[in-house]
Structures are given as structure tokens and as C-alpha cells.
Structure of non-specific serine/threonine protein kinase:
Amino acid sequence: RRLDSRSGLSAGLLGEIQTPVSTEPMDSVYETTGELGRGKFAVVKRCVEKATGKVFAAKFLRKRRRGRDCRADVIHEMAVLEVARNNARVVNLHAAYETDHDIVLVLEYAAGGEIFDHCASDELLPEAQITRLIRQMLEGVHYLHQSNLVHLDLKPQNILLTSLSPPGDIKIVDFGLARRLGAVGELREILGTPEYVAPEILNYEPITTATDLWSVGVIAYMLVTGESPFAGDDKQETYLNVSQVNVDYSRENFSRVSELAVDFIRKLLVKAPEDRPSAAECMSHPWLWQQPQICLTPDLVPTRTGRERSCGTKWTAPPEDPED
Ligand code: ADP
Ligand code: MG
């Protein structure tokens, strides 16, 4: 499925890391307790640092995959996490270990699980919570894009929460498919999960930062409606739905939320990448700033828990307030 000229680092991979990769036995420092999730080549386990009692998430990444040495891919994933180290919306890398089979990334623990659980449940989040989470997601995405990185695998399974109820702050995880832009000009790769990937990926067209904004639109749609906008009965149908941008905006799906939600999503789910707003432009969409919250900067956002904090980017609310 994957067209990918992986010659060394030329496909936008980063090669330099600062975090030492320890070959000491990890279980002298951490006690692993249970599984948090798994993908094709990774298992994520909850672990406790024995000295401090602090909880972390240990992502065990296989070094060999399909008979190929993939150590460089793991180093790249670490390097991306290091680039985003100072951004509160991206999961923090605490330490790294290496065993015969795996490299283990010891990550900040996101105790609230995946926002997927808020997309596929009978109890969807209130609109004010959804817009708060989308603002946070855009802050993280904006930071990555400013750092010349694209995530390319943004989906509700890769956006975690620091706490479940009330929903905490978001943490973007899983930088396995992330790439650096610019280094080799255009990136053309088949990546990601069909349900969540942009039409340009299915069409082997150049990948840009706009590709991530499509995924933000898909996630927003799911948080609002509880449904995946392009999921078909099979892969074929899903591909067709994506490439034709076949989206159901019928009112019954959106009855819970304001008209502005539909406007926000419609602006992102457009076929031509160059016609999608950037993360910074999305940030000034009135949907994200509507009542009951009157906010000027994230520092001032009143939340029920008072836990929202700034991630270092100052955003100003859009000039006109359509609600007034
Ligand atoms: P993969 O590349 O296999 O998809 P991910 O990094 O997405 O690996 O991790 C898989 C799953 O493990 C996530 O979807 C999430 O449910 C869980 N997970 C990953 N990182 C953390 C973390 N820091 N805290 C809590 N759960 C996590
Ligand atoms: Mg994942």
C-alpha cells in the first residue's frame, strides 16, 4: 500500500536525537502494568517509575518490520517529538530504552484516553468542549507546521486527553508517519488510514501542511456528529467518498451545534489543498470563539476546571463577533 522511496533520510526523515537511548534494563527503573493500545508495529504499555511513582506510557517499537531494519524510523519519531518538546499539545518524550527487538519510548502519560471515545459514543461532548479541544489541536498543528513538520496521521485515535471526565487537555501522539517538509521538495507517499486521509494522498499528489488540516476537519466532524464522514462499507467506497468529498451535512446530524460548526468543517473538507485554511487561519474562525466563552487569548480562557494553559502561541479572537 505504501509508495515510499526510503533512501536514507531523503524522504523527509529526521536523523538527529538528543535523548540518550539507554541499553540498561528498563525494568530496573520502571514497572510496566498494563496495555494502553497497540498498532501494527508498536505496543503501548502503562508503566510506573519506581523511584517516583510517576506514571508514563511506554511505546515499544519493533526495530525490524517485515524483515527490514527500521531503527531509522524510530529515531525519526523520537527526533520529531524532540522538535515539538516545548509545545504543550504534543506528548512529551521522557526517556528511551533499547532492547534486542525494540526501542522503547517512555512518554508522558495521557490518562484520558483517545478522543475517539468521544466520537463514537452515545454521549457526545458539549459544543463548548469540542471547540476548546479543536483550538488546542490547532495550536499543536500550527506549532508542527511552523517547525516544517506535517503529522500525516491525525485521527481520533492519535489525539489523547490528559484526563477523561471532565475532558482534560489534548496531547497529539504517534509521529510515526510525520515528515519534514521542504527538505526534498515534494512529498508523495501513500500513508495513513483511508477514512482520515485527504484526497491528495489517495491521488499521489504532493503532500503539504494542508493535508493535516483535512484531518482536523474529519475529527471536528466526528466530535460534532459521532460519525466518520467518509467511512464506507469497504475500502473502495471510502476511497470514493474521500475523492468525491461526499459529505453529509444534513441538518439532523448537526442539530446539537450552531451553524458555525458546519461552516468550519465545510472550509476544511475541500478537495483542493490550497483552498483549505491554514491552522492559524482556522484559529480565527468564529465557531471556535463563540459564546459562552469570551476569549481573547488562551491564557484567559475560562474553563470549568481552570486547567487550560497557554502553549506559547498568542491567538487573538476574530475581529467581528457574529453573536453580537
Ligand atoms: P501506533 O503507531 O501503533 O498507532 P500510537 O503512538 O498511536 O501507536 O499508540 C497506540 C495507542 O496507544 C494510542 O492510540 C493510544 O490509545 C495509546 N497511547 C499512545 N501513547 C499514549 C500515551 N502517551 N498515554 C496514554 N495512551 C497512549
Ligand atoms: Mg496511532
Q: What stands out?
A: The chain is about 25% helix and 15% strand. Residues 1-10 have pLDDT under 50 and may be disordered. The CA atoms of residues 148 and 181 lie 5 Å apart. Helices lie at 71-83, 127-146, 199-202, 210-225, 235-243, 259-268, 279-283.
